[in-house]
Design goal:
Oligomer: single chain
Order of helices and strands: HHH
Strand content: under 5%
Number of domains: 1
Largest sheet: none
Structural class: mainly alpha
Shape: elongated
Number of strands: 0
Low-confidence stretches: none
Number of helices: 3
Distance between the termini: 58 Å
Radius of gyration: 16 Å
C-alpha cells in the first residue's frame, strides 16, 4: 500500500465521517459557543480534505486555497472571541 492509497482509502473516509459528526454538532449545538467551535472544526476538516486531495492528485495550487481558508477561519475565531469579550463587559 502506497502513501497515496493510504491517504485516499483510509484518511479521506475518516475525515468525511468526522465532518458529518461535527456538522451534526453544529446543527444541534445548544449554545453559540458550541456552534462556533463546530464551525471552526468543520473548516479545519475541510482544510485537511483539500490538502489530501492536493497531495493525491498532485495539484499544489489547492494548498494555497487551504492556506487562505485557514486564515479566514483564524480571523473568524478571533472575531468571535472579541465579540464574547465585549458581550461579557456589557453584562
Amino acid at each position: 500500500m502506497t502513501i497515496y492509497e493510504f491517504l485516499y482509502y483510509i484518511i479521506m473516509p475518516i475525515l468525511s465521517l468526522s465532518g458529518v459528526l461535527v456538522f451534526v454538532r453544529f446543527v444541534l449545538g445548544p449554545s453559540l459557543s458550541d456552534r462556533v467551535i463546530a464551525l471552526d472544526l468543520l473548516i479545519t476538516i475541510g482544510i485537511g480534505i483539500i490538502a489530501i486531495y492536493s497531495i493525491v492528485n498532485n495539484m499544489p495550487t489547492f494548498l494555497d486555497i487551504a492556506m487562505i481558508l485557514a486564515l479566514i477561519a483564524f480571523l473568524g475565531t478571533v472575531a468571535f472571541s472579541y465579540y464574547l469579550e465585549k458581550r461579557d463587559k456589557n453584562e
